[in-house]
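re: ur question from yesterday

yeah so i grabbed the chain u mentioned. its 147 aa long if i counted rite. heres the sequnce exactly as i have it in my notes:
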Amino acid sequence: MSAAPGADFDAALVAVMGDLARGIDALHACLIEERLALDNPDPQPLEDVGRAKGDLIDRVEALDVELRQLGDAARVDAFADPRWTHVFDRLRECRQLNETNGRIVGQRISHVRHALSLISGDSPGGSTYGRNGVAKINLRSATLAQV
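ran it thru and got these structure tokens back, copy pasting raw so excuse formatting
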């Protein structure tokens, strides 16, 4: 009787980890697609890949919960199994890709905010023109250099 639960556990583990590996591979491909969509001036591909990425993350998280429950039920650390090292390596790659994409998005948001602050006249250090279209002049004097 002790051999059957081990075999059943291993079969279940292989099934869940196989699903997790496929989900992580799909997420990896999706993150690459997201990076390419960030270069596209049309926002629709980015919206589409964003939805797909959200769905894949939900799926990977659900499989993670299933894997943890399976391990808890068998009192085994399923994540310590060396057969799955490549899956976790790929997951780390996904994290790096996602962080890179996030930095790109953050930089673009910063540029847009800066442009909006220039247009509205709220930028630090003044702006080129005021709201009424008249140039603003800052009469503050400062030493630029000293010899």
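noticed a couple things. The chain has a mean pLDDT of 84. also The chain is about 70% helix and 0% strand.
anyway ttyl
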